[in-house]
Amino acid sequence: MSTDNEIKEMVKEKYGAIALQSKEENQSSCCGSGCGCSSVEFSVMAEDYKTLPGYVPDADLALGCGLPTEFAQIKPGNTIVDLGSGAGNDCFIARSIVGETGRVIGIDMTVPMIEKARANAAKLGFTNVDFRLGDIETMPIDNDTADVVVSNCVMNLVPDKQKAFAETYRITKPGGHFSISDIVLQGELTDELRKEASLYAGCISGAVQKQEYLRVIRESGFTNITVQKERTIDIPNEVLARVLTLEQLREFKKTRVGIFSITVYAEKPKS
Length: 271
Prior knowledge:
The protein is of the alpha/beta class. It has helices at residues 4-19, 23-26, 68-71, 89-98, 111-124, 161-171, 191-201, 210-219, 237-240, 246-254; strands at 79-83, 103-108, 129-133, 146-152, 172-186, 223-232, 258-267.
């Protein structure tokens, strides 16, 4: 079994390599779970950003599983923190909303991603978008900084989700909130099925049960927890058939067992 540090090193290695590739290469590239590069399809999880204001093609590596900034209720002048900011995709969307009077901070633990994001910001001439190298479990951000926290398909990669959400709570202002898109499981997948799904969809090996995910958020102190959007990650029958009989496949399709992308909203109490 991999230790927390080993998992983090795998994430750094894989996403560091992804930062140097094109979006098209990334859509069939490696994930942070250590799965085989040639087998992973990111495109089954990613959603289309092209219609959102502030979209920057060079910052879109198609690595997300939702559109958290679309649901985040960001306002002009807000301070936004993006957890696992990658090449800056969600940061630039957020910046288009907060405007010149707002502020956006991206956190990522992968040096090539930070370098790519900073280069993108420099090309755009943005002076109120700041990318910081750091770990989500110990963020280089002061207490009560963010009006809004966003994150896209990153928390499932963090070994200690309780610590990550506790840190999210710490950096959020009283009365602030987050909108986070992530991958969760519903129902128990067999080890074989989970392995095949990881090889197809990528980056789900760290995903937990939906109710467990929501419990961690609640125990971190957040309130008014709401699932803003839920979407099934469809695994093709030919992938499932590698580990399921025809009868098992029929039964599986009837159940709610599977892999889901959810976008969750939660608030930090004012007092």
